[in-house]
Write a structure and sequence with these properties.
It contains 8 helices and 8 strands. It is α+β, with helices and mostly antiparallel strands.
């Protein structure tokens, strides 16, 4: 969980450093955000399944990835969401081929979980300790980290990179624009004989300005003063 906290912190730092605001993050409108909670709950619920029924726990893990894919598809326009989908697909493929994510026994030993202690890293239905003979073992949990989760996969790293981009973009706000802009930066200069402006839902375009013309930007109506 510490790795996710670091990822969120990095995303916040990038977004704030580029002029964003935490208010933008709190006001962000994601589609079906509850799917995130559902995916996490499905994976963790596997720990409650008896070891004799590990196939059920595995089914819950598979279902959790399907939920992640649905969430990524619903929010695919958000910067970084494609990385999350790609990383999740990499992990999902390895899990399907091996009926679980292989954790490298050698990598586990390097972070202090050698021998029987390596089982502490296992989430039931999702992981198993491998000696290197699993399918696509290079894409399994083979990258030792400094804190929990102690070992990561290549897919995990891509997911975390995507999360950093997602958080940073949400902090920056819609279209990655800063919350405080100089009005002169908002609109480019246009010649006085041609104006294109937008206010609310009303759009004024290709208007030829003349003397004594008043333009009400609240709607598309204009009135000529006498």
């Amino acid at each position: 969980m510490l790795a996710f906290a670091v990822v969120i912190a990095v995303g916040l730092a990038i977004g704030l450093g580029r002029g964003g605001s935490v208010k933008n993050l709190l006001a962000a409108r994601l589609r079906w955000p509850g799917l995130i909670i559902v995916a996490v709950a499905l994976q963790l619920s596997g720990m409650l399944i008896p070891r004799s029924q590990s196939i059920i726990a595995f089914g819950l893990v598979v279902a959790s990835y399907l939920v992640v894919f649905a969430f990524a598809a619903l929010n695919w326009r958000l910067p970084g969401m494609a990385f999350i989908g790609i990383g999740a697909a990499m992990n999902y493929t390895v899990i399907l081929l091996n009926r679980g994510m292989p954790i490298s026994a050698a990598a586990a030993a390097r972070v202090g979980y050698g021998g029987a202690k390596a089982q502490e890293l296992v989430i039931r239905g999702k992981h198993f300790i491998s000696s290197g003979h699993a399918h696509l073992s290079a894409l399994g949990d083979v990258i030792p980290l400094w804190r929990q989760p102690s070992i990561a996969s290549a897919g995990d790293l891509i997911i975390w990179a995507g999360l950093i981009l997602v958080v940073a973009s949400l902090v920056l706000g819609p279209r990655g624009r800063r919350t405080k802009l100089n009005p002169q930066d908002e609109y480019a200069y246009v010649p006085p004989d041609h104006v294109s402006a937008r206010a609310g839902d009303a759009t004024l375009s290709s208007l030829t300005l003349q003397d004594n013309v008043v333009i009400d930007l609240r709607d598309t109506r204009s009135s000529r003063t006498s």
